[in-house]
């Protein structure tokens, strides 16, 4: 039984990439492993977000976890800011990580670039949040972190700081491994297939939200950017739009086979798009039905999150206590 941790930031409506790359993959771990899944709300503050939207999206993300099949009886489900040890451990780890390591992070460079010439408005937390993510993971002595491919670099940083801290101060942290899906680990934007589907890109046209209606899903897939060659083949470099649709199809169909094999079934982009749309609609239908049911029971969700936070606090405070002692902070009398 491995100790498993993962999370999603409530920075917008969850999309198909979050579902295929992360959420859906978490569910089976509950049967075999010791699992914790967190709504990492502090991470969402790295970009400007309306306070009311943050609160609403935090609850919506919890509803999505439950609708995807996470079960509070088998997994610890909680909100990051309900466990203050994450923030304190971050400080100890910021004193372990280096500025150069953080400045090299692709997500930092990407999101900071969106600030254009207004770099003074780019939040300092955008630079340091990978350390918060390391604290999230290390606080639970996590062994396995199921994530999408875009998080590979952040997990590597968590491994680096854990190893460095242990070498300097003694064996406090477990060095975690990333667990990345073999297929659909990086779903791309339908309008800009050279960039990943993302919550915080303002235009919804390239993103399939988990709450989209069947009509919206069909429209977005129909309008997905492809190329002029009109030949269905799996070639992510030369045909990124078509490769993305094939990745989505392979992940959405249970017995779909590999994207390259699926490509051979299609003689036209239109036929491929129609099947992709049908497969995504069918995939999301049961999720959306469960989401509606949980939404009607929001009071219960608050109670479940409170219980999850109590369990998480006990574990995280234990690790934090060991880290405090290891670095030499004087314990209060
Ligand atoms: N496009 C994607 N394809 C596959 N997996 C993805 N994930 C995110 N986008 C894709 C996976 O979803 C989990 C949660 O990610 P996050 O919310 O913590 O941050 P993120 O990776 O930065 O996700 P977004 O949607 O792009 O949000 P914003 O725009 O707010 O940054 C992770 O496991 C991630 O790999």
Please specify the SSE layout and strand pairing:
Layout: E1 3-8, H1 16-26, H2 29-32, E2 34-39, H3 41-44, H4 51-68, E3 75-79, H5 85-94, H6 99-103, H7 106-113, H8 124-138, E4 144-147, H9 152-169, E5 177-180, H10 214-222, H11 240-252, H12 259-263, H13 269-295, H14 298-327
Parallel strand pairs: 1-2, 2-3, 4-5
Helix pairs in contact: 4-13, 5-8, 5-14, 8-9, 10-13, 11-13
This protein binds adenosine-5'-tetraphosphate (AQP).
Characterise the protein shown here:
- By secondary structure, the protein is mostly helical.
- It has two domains: 3-180 and 297-327, HUPs (Rossmann fold, 3-Layer(aba) Sandwich), CATH 3.40.50; 204-292, Tyrosyl-Transfer RNA Synthetase, CATH 1.10.240.
- The chain is 53% helix and 8% strand.
- Strands 1-2-3 form a three-stranded parallel beta sheet.
- Strand 4 (144-147), helix 9 and strand 5 (177-180) form a beta-alpha-beta unit.
- Helix 5 (85-94) crosses helix 8.
- It is globular.
- 43% of the residues are buried.
- The model has no long low-confidence stretch (mean pLDDT 95).
- Bound molecules: adenosine-5'-tetraphosphate.
- Residues 8-9, 11-12, 17-18, 20-22, 147-148, 150-151, 185-187, 196-200 line the site of adenosine-5'-tetraphosphate.
């Amino acid at each position: 039984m491995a100790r498993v941790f993962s999370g999603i930031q409530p920075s917008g409506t969850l999309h198909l990439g979050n579902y295929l790359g992360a959420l859906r993959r978490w569910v089976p771990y509950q049967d075999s492993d010791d699992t914790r899944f967190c709504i990492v709300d502090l991470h969402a503050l790295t970009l400007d977000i309306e306070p009311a939207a943050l609160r609403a999206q935090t609850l919506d993300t919890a509803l999505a976890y439950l609708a995807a099949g996470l079960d509070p009886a088998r997994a610890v489900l909680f909100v990051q800011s309900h466990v203050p040890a994450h923030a304190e451990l971050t400080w100890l780890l910021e004193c372990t990580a280096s500025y150069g390591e953080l400045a090299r992070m692709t997500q930092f460079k990407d999101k900071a670039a969106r600030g254009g010439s207004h770099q003074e408005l780019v939040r300092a937390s955008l630079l340091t949040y990978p350390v918060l993510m390391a604290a999230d993971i290390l606080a639970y002595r996590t062994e396995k972190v199921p994530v999408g491919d875009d998080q590979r670099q952040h997990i590597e940083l968590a491994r680096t700081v854990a190893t460095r801290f242990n070498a300097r101060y003694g064996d406090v942290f477990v060095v975690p491994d990333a667990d990345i899906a073999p297929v659909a680990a990086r779903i791309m934007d339908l309008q800009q297939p050279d960039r990943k589907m993302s919550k915080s890109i303002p235009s919804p046209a390239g993103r399939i939200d988990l709450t989209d209606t069947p009509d919206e899903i069909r429209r977005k897939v129909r309008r997905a950017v492809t190329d002029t060659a009109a030949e269905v083949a799996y070639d992510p470099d030369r045909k990124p739009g078509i490769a993305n649709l094939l990745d989505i199809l392979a992940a959405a169909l249970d017995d779909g086979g590999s994207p390259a094999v699926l490509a051979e079934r299609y003689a036209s982009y239109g036929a491929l798009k129609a099947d992709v749309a049908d497969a995504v609609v069918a995939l999301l239908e049961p999720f959306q039905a469960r989401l509606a049911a949980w939404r009607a029971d929001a009071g219960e969700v608050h109670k479940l999150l409170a219980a999850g936070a109590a369990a998480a606090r006990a574990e995280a405070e234990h690790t934090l206590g060991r880290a405090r002692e290891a670095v030499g902070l004087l314990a209060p009398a």
